[in-house]
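Colleagues,

For the teaching module next term, I've prepared a clean inverse folding example: a structure given as tokens, and then the sequence designed for it. I'd like students to try predicting residues themselves before seeing the answer, so please don't circulate the second half yet.
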């Protein structure tokens, strides 16, 4: 059975509880939050490593983000990935899911030979789940979304299982394919910290390295326009005690409800 060359697309995201929005650009303000590797992406890395153990091949990591994202990719390398690539350039900044999936697809093509692309189901900072499908569209290949498990069939197709309402769905698609992996489907392995200490483990590519027109990248390539952003605040709650018999309390409560309607 053929060995698998797998690319796992991962994202470095701000910790959800520390997220703030830049007032002028209406994008996430990275300076105000600590970062972490997107949790579903770690499940995707674990699934890729398990497939490599079964079938042989390679596991590469690919991400798009600021230069400070590079050390976070070393988490995947410490888990056992073979190599990592970071797309980092000011031209990538402010991208919505369309130019993000385009840039990642171009990065995948630049890496070279591949059979399977894995992604987390969605990122904690955007939560759209659109990027894996976008990558599949740009690459012109089949896809499976929200996968819980994967297996390579004797005929060379990829078998995927996902949870649906009332049961499980089993899908088989030809390779190459793009698969989004559901959060929490496996237990990520421990890291080998010696592998994480290699400063040359992450290859960084700019927009020029991809050889693409800048109009397809970042703000310029994003059809989404954010009109306004604000932070939701919990309304103040007021408490009122009703006196009297149960019947009187019920009457007073009914009157209060009528006044609010």
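(Answer key — instructors only)
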């Amino acid at each position: 059975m053929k060995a698998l060359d797998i690319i796992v697309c991962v994202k470095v995201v701000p910790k959800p509880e520390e997220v703030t929005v830049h007032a002028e650009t209406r994008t996430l303000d990275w300076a105000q939050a600590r970062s972490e590797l997107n949790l579903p992406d770690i499940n995707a890395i674990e699934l890729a490593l398990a497939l490599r153990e079964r079938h042989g091949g390679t596991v590469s990591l690919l991400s798009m983000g600021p230069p400070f994202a590079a050390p976070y990719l070393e988490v995947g390398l410490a888990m056992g990935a073979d190599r990592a690539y970071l797309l980092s350039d000011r031209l990538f900044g402010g991208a919505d899911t369309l130019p993000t999936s385009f840039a990642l697809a171009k990065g995948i093509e630049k890496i070279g030979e591949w059979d399977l692309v894995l992604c987390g189901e969605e990122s904690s900072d955007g939560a759209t789940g659109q990027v894996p499908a976008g990558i599949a569209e740009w690459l012109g290949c089949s896809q499976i979304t929200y996968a819980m498990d994967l297996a390579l069939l004797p005929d060379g197709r990829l078998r995927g299982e996902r949870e649906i309402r009332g049961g499980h769905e089993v899908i088989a698609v030809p390779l190459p394919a793009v698969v989004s992996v559901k959060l929490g489907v496996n237990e990520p392995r421990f890291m080998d910290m010696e592998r994480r200490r290699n400063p040359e483990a992450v290859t960084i590519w700019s927009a020029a390295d991809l050889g693409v027109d800048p109009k397809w990248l970042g703000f310029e390539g994003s059809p989404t326009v954010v009109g306004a952003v604000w932070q939701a605040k919990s309304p103040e709650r007021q408490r009122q005690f009703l006196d009297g018999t149960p019947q009187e309390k019920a009457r007073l409560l009914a009157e209060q409800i009528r006044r609010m309607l």
